[in-house]
Specification:
The complex is a heterotrimer of chains A (452), B (397) and C (343). By secondary structure, chain A is of the alpha/beta class. Chain A has two domains: 251 residues, Response regulator (Rossmann fold), CATH 3.40.50; 134 residues, Rossmann fold, CATH 3.40.50.2300. Helices cover 36% and strands 18% of the residues of chain A. In chain A, the strands form four sheets. In chain A, strands 7-6-8-11-12-16-17 form a seven-stranded mixed sheet, with helices on both faces. Chain A is globular and about 70 Å long. Chain B starts with 5 loop residues before the first helix and ends in a 19-residue tail after the last helix. Chain B has a domain of 271 residues. Chain B has a two-stranded antiparallel ribbon with strand order 1-6. Chain B has a two-stranded antiparallel sheet with strand order 2-3. A two-stranded antiparallel ribbon of chain B has the order 4-5. By secondary structure, chain B is mainly α. Chain C is mainly α. Chain C has 15 helices and four strands. In chain C, α2 runs parallel beside α6. Chain C starts with a helix and ends in a 14-residue tail after the last helix. The chains are: A alpha/beta (452), B mainly alpha (397), C mainly alpha (343). At the A-B interface, α2, β2, α3 and α4 of A face α3 of B.
């Protein structure tokens, strides 16, 4: 770390800031909140500000949580002016200066969600009550995200969701204090459908195996709607218990059902096991209705795909971000993450890093840590340079809208990280939906809660 | 006093003092010091201590007295939570109806499950209760989603009816306007102490429940339960039917669990299905054995022990370790961190597992026995002072 | 009809895993009277024997290939397993390919050793202690074992494929006169079933037809009398503990290709295997096997769409429901002996 700003990075930053200021005439005016350093929960009084990183450290998603934590540590390093600055250099907003947030050095506390709503809330509460965290972020499942988001709304801090893909997070469970950068089931479906149509034709019959909880249902509903819209039929939708480890009895009847595509609405360990079972049954070598039998995994995670080994080859799915993207933001992020840890970041790591940057930037622009000020700064915020192209935080539901990646399991991986290849980058316009879309209806944001 | 023997009265008084002064006792380190990591005196964890204390006290009435090892007690905790949250959704955020209903429903479920399960004893009984709890968990997670909101957990939405809710009332759980999450923070020099409404409510309820448990332990009914544990066959030969007694104990402990669930929902208005999973049932078994099954204070200590590890050790990360050992030379610092690292943060389960083994190997009677050993060492030399476990503890047998 | 045959096969397959684990658990109950909550962890250790052997066999040296680049743009490092450079690429890669079957040989001594150490070092001291203490100490041990595995291998599942020779599936339907592709079943799962049957037969044969087995059975029935006859029953029971651990470990090794192993797979099986043992009846080896297959088959049938449409969610609770019914109808499970763990 260096205190002097006469570094290459410092220079770059200053000039970039000037450029940014010129290029964006309608800069958000945060002066309303400017001197509001009180009147909200956990207002930082000293020279530091504490963020709470709440990730799964035990249970099946522990590795994903560990990757999220790496990304957070990297983000904190960059915010405090260490390292090479990562995506701070490519971010379209130049409010961040590498001197912490609003001049306060960023510190963090960590906790274990155990991928359980109760434990996650307990951990988040201890961060808020004991450590004075001003923002909570992280998580690797939708149940946890919704539960913690609700808590943050009640307590009065900002929640920046980590990996959560259910429509509900910014649908019927949306909250004024909660923000999601990650994409959702509807977007996956909207992005995948045209690719599937191009590859597999319009005359197909799909068989769904769906994890029997809210995330699985919303994703299945989305995929079914999107594929039926392009002419596919749906043979069946079978709900599989979350605790299933052996999917053979769900996979076995697929071949006789007349379906020629199997859609696995599973994530994590479920996905690894169901895909392994499906491949073991030799489904992919079979011919049904004169067509090759195909398998689709709508939500891919590279970390988890690794567990399925060879079985992912040639299987389509979608992902929020992938390290092989070649835009400047992604390259900068992969470089600083890879140099620090020795391997490329996962999509979970990416979304967590971005969420931290977005929060810091919003605080900087609002001139306060007040959750209401930050919410106002994030709502409708348009940005670029964070790896997903042009992105917008929609004000009405706090969901980010951006391009979605359609990926395929790579046939000839060159390294252990090189498992997925990007097939198509579906533009944002194709995956956008109205705020009152029936799959997202039912909830309301409510008012932002500053907690005091 | 209160119809208790002298020994029990002093135990009750000690517990009362401990719970009332918990905000001080649990926050022994200055807020800004490196050791502040070990402070447990923040509202959420204090609430959890006493709520799980209630849960474990109730479990001990069944297990400690009758010897029937239920492996499905978490189901009642979950049912209690769901009932309470439903009351919040329908009636409003006043916690009284919720707590009331949670005790009633869990009592009813306990009656049903107990009536069936108590037809068997030993491990067969354990598996029956486990089966019921696992079925409740699986159904709550999936098929019963309209009732339980599945994976996400049951929450209160703005669109819920809340018939008795008016705009004047707080929009979070409260008792006649007293918000559960309101906290008064006392700053005394470098120290800071949190006094939380919800905690004191839970603590008072726990004291009440502790008192009831003492009365049960000392009553003829309690004696009958101990007789069942000691030798059920002999009891049968004397012409007594033990079933109604065990069933009563089962229902009482189920109601304790329901009360704990209702309080959990009142402190934090969300009810998740994981509360009913076998791991949660196993946790209360571990709490009781760890603290000392059959003793009055043991289960509370065990509950505190496990919750402390879960919430404090899991939060120690490498940055914290660096702070602790910063005064050491670099080489030694890194070495120490490398040694400690696997046991904290994401490795907190490992520490917990090792502690389980150590306690059960070296202290067969649980923490209470450890306390007694320490106490007997100090006895005569020095009046018993600090260590809470060393305070007067009364094994039932 | 075809669906029923398929689910029957699935049930037998699931059942063989349940039966193997339950068999080991019952051996420990029956001989030592110990409730072993670490049994799931032994199963998991077995699966990680396969993972470890695969890792050992594919230990590699790195060479730098300047023509290719890694994700950071540096020259790529190409990994070549030592074994391929020693035996040539073809033989080498086929040895790696066969790592799971080879792991059986690797796992037997390791698991017997683990079982022996566990019994002598820990379990021995808990014979006279209440069952609750046994549960606590073995549960603690299970947590420790799985956390240690997590420290080494991470939390993600690790792919451990079966040899290429067993890829794909066998077309039963064409044997039975169905259309092709109607009743197919993966080769490796068939292997698993026959392997399980072999192990079960071997354990029963060992207990039934050897002197050692006879003594152990006598000890299970009446430990004191056997002891009075001057037989050192404790030593034999220790060996039985090792054998039980090996059975669990082998079940795990062979299971690795079916589901990629992860560190908490033991906990996933733990509760289920206890249910199986109790439904079978405490202390009864045939009961454990029978209950394993029965529950496996019932679980498979309950996951059929036709049944799920009538009773949604039935596949999630069937095992517990059946357990309750059986225990209510037959107080000691299917074949339980009187007086074992009833207090």
């Amino acid at each position: 770390m260096s205190n002097s700003n006469f570094t290459r990075r410092g220079l770059l930053k200053t000039s970039a800031m000037a450029g940014g200021a010129l290029a964006m005439p309608t800069i958000y005016d945060g002066s309303v909140w400017a001197d509001a350093h009180a009147g909200y929960l956990n207002a930082p009084t000293g020279s530091t500000v504490t963020l709470g990183f709440n990730v799964p450290q035990s249970g099946p998603y522990a590795d994903e949580g560990a990757d999220e934590l790496r990304a957070y540590e990297l983000a904190v390093e960059h915010l405090n002016g260490g390292g090479d600055g990562g995506m701070m250099n490519t971010f379209s907003s130049k409010a961040l200066q590498g001197n912490g947030i609003l001049g306060k050095k960023v510190e963090f506390v960590t906790g274990d969600t155990q991928t359980k709503s109760d434990a996650a809330r307990a951990s988040a509460k201890s961060m808020i009550e004991k450590d004075g965290a001003i923002m909570i972020t992280g998580g690797s499942s939708s149940g946890v995200a919704v539960a913690v988001q609700g808590l943050c709304q009640e307590a009065g801090v900002i929640f920046m969701a980590g990996l959560t893909h259910s429509n509900d997070t910014t649908g019927k469970d949306k909250k004024a204090n909660g923000f999601r950068h990650f994409f959702n089931g509807y977007m996956s479906a909207a992005a995948l459908a045209p690719v599937l149509k191009a590859r597999y034709g319009t005359d197909r019959t799909a068989y769904h195996l769906t994890a029997d909880y809210t995330w699985g249902w919303t994703q299945q509903e989305s995929i079914q709607a999107a594929t039926e819209a392009m002419g596919w039929k749906t043979a069946n939708n079978v709900l599989t218990p979350l605790a299933t480890t052996d999917f053979s009895s769900y996979v076995a009847p697929v071949l006789n059902s007349g379906a020629d595509v199997l859609v696995l609405n599973h994530y994590g360990g479920n996905m690894v096991n169901s895909l392994t079972s499906a491949v073991q049954f030799g489904l992919r070598e079979k011919q049904v209705n004169g067509k090759n039998f195909e398998i689709v995994v709508p939500l891919y995670s590279r970390l988890m795909a690794k567990g399925a080994g060879e079985n992912v080859k040639g299987i389509f799915g979608s992902t929020n971000w992938h390290w092989s993207l070649t835009d400047e933001g992604s390259k900068a992020f992969v470089k600083s993450f890879g140099e620090k840890y020795g391997f490329p970041p996962s999509q979970a790591a990416h979304t967590c890093y971005v969420q931290t940057m977005l929060y810091a930037d919003a605080a900087e622009r609002a001139g306060t840590f007040n959750p209401c000020g930050i919410a106002e700064a994030l709502e409708g915020f348009k940005f670029d340079g964070l790896g997903n192209g042009e992105t917008e935080y929609r004000a009405e539901d706090h969901q980010c809208f951006k391009d979605v990646l359609v990926v395929k399991g790579k046939d000839n991986p060159t390294s252990e990280f090189d498992l997925l290849e990007i097939v198509e980058i579906t533009p944002r316009a194709q995956v956008e939906y109205a705020v009152d879309h029936p799959m997202f209806a039912g909830g309301e944001l409510g008012k932002c809660n500053p907690g005091a | 006093m209160l119809g208790l023997e002298k020994k029990d009265t002093s135990l009750l008084i000690i517990v009362a003092i401990l719970t009332m002064c918990a905000p001080f006792i649990l926050n022994p380190f200055p807020a800004d010091s490196a050791m502040a990591q070990f402070n447990a005196g923040y509202p959420d964890l204090m609430q959890r201590f006493v709520i799980f204390g209630i849960f474990a006290i109730g479990f001990n009435i069944l297990f400690g007295l009758t010897g029937y090892l239920s492996f499905g007690h978490a189901a009642f905790l979950g049912i209690g939570s769901y009932s309470a949250v439903w009351m919040f959704k329908l009636l409003g955020y006043n916690i009284l109806p919720g707590i009331f209903l949670s005790v009633i429903t869990s009592g009813l479920f306990a009656l049903l499950i107990g009536y069936i399960s108590l037809r068997r004893s030993g491990i067969y009984f354990s598996i029956l209760t486990l089966a019921f709890a696992q079925m409740s968990f699986a159904l709550a997670y999936s098929v019963l989603t309209p009732l339980t909101n599945g994976e996400t957990g049951l929450q209160v939405y703005n669109s819920d009816p809340q018939y008795f809710h008016s705009d004047a009332m707080p929009n979070i759980p409260h008792l006649f306007g007293q918000e559960m999450q309101s906290t008064y923070t006392l700053d005394a020099g470098a120290w800071s102490f949190d006094f939380n409404t919800g905690y004191y409510l839970c603590a008072l309820i726990m004291l009440g429940m502790f008192y009831i448990a003492i009365r049960i332990f000392r009553s003829p009914f309690g004696l009958m339960l101990k007789a069942i544990k000691t030798n059920q066959t002999r009891l049968n030969y004397t012409g007594l039917n033990p079933r109604p007694y065990t069933l009563a104990a089962f229902v009482i402990s189920g109601m304790y669990a329901g009360l704990a669930g209702g309080l959990m929902a009142s402190m934090d208005p969300l009810a998740g299905a994981e509360r009913m999973q076998w791991t949660a049932s196993g946790e209360v078994v571990l709490m009781t054995i760890l603290g000392g099954a059959g003793t009055l204070i043991g289960p509370v200590l065990g509950a505190g022990f496990i919750k402390y590890f879960e919430n404090i050790f899991s939060k120690i990360n490498d940055t914290v370790l660096h702070q602790w050992f910063a005064f050491l030379p670099d080489g030694i610092e890194d070495f120490l961190i490398a040694i400690v690292h696997p046991f904290v943060g994401k490795g907190w389960h490992l520490t917990l597992g090792l502690m389980f083994m150590a306690i059960v190997i070296f202290l067969p009677g649980g923490l209470v026995e450890g306390g007694q050993k320490i106490a007997s060492k100090f006895r005569g030399k020095k009046a018993k002072d600090d260590a809470p476990a060393a305070s007067d503890t009364t094994p039932a047998e | 009809m075809d669906v029923i045959i398929l689910q029957l096969l699935n049930g037998l397959d699931k059942g063989s895993a349940y039966a193997l684990i339950a068999l080991g658990l019952t051996l420990i109950f029956g001989t030592l009277g110990v409730v072993n909550f670490a049994h799931g962890a032994l199963f998991m250790l077995g699966a990680f024997c396969a993972v470890t052997l695969q890792k050992i066999l594919s230990l590699s040296f790195e060479t730098i290939d300047p023509t290719k680049t890694d994700f950071l743009g540096n020259p790529a490092k190409i990994k070549t397993p030592y074994i391929e450079s020693w035996f040539g690429p073809e033989l080498g890669s086929s040895i790696i390919d066969w790592s799971v079957p080879l792991a059986i040989l690797f796992a037997i001594p390791i698991m017997i050793g683990v079982g022996y150490i566990m019994e002598r070092g820990l379990i021995k001291h808990f014979y006279k202690r209440p069952h609750a203490d046994q549960i606590l100490v073995t549960f603690g041990l299970a947590i420790v074992i799985q956390e240690v595995i997590k420290q080494f291998y991470g939390a993600n599942p690790i792919p451990t494929p079966a040899p290429d020779a067993f890829k794909g599936s066998f077309d039963f339907g064409s044997l039975l006169g169905f259309d092709p592709n109607v009743v197919i079943y993966p080769y490796w799962r068939l292997v698993y079933f026959f392997f399980a049957a072999l192990i079960i037969a071997a354990v029963f044969g060992f207990l039934q037809f050897t002197t050692f087995g006879m003594v152990v059975r006598a000890g299970m029935a009446d430990r004191e009398t056997v002891g009075l006859l001057g037989i050192n029953i404790d030593r034999r029971f220790t060996i039985m503990f090792g054998i039980a651990a090996a059975v669990a470990g082998l079940a795990g090794v062979m299971y690795a290709p079916i589901n990629s192993p992860n560190y908490h797979m033991g906990m996933d099986f733990l509760v289920l295997s206890f249910v199986v043992v109790v439904v079978g009846g405490m202390g009864s080896l045939p009961g454990a096997v029978l209950a394993g297959f029965l529950l496996g088959i019932l679980e498979s049938f309950s996951s059929m769409n036709e049944i799920k449409q009538i009773l949604p969610g039935i596949d999630q609770i069937i095992i517990y429901l059946v357990a309750i019914i059986i225990l209510l109808v037959r107080p000691r499970g299917l074949m339980g002996r009187k007086g074992v763990m009833e207090d």
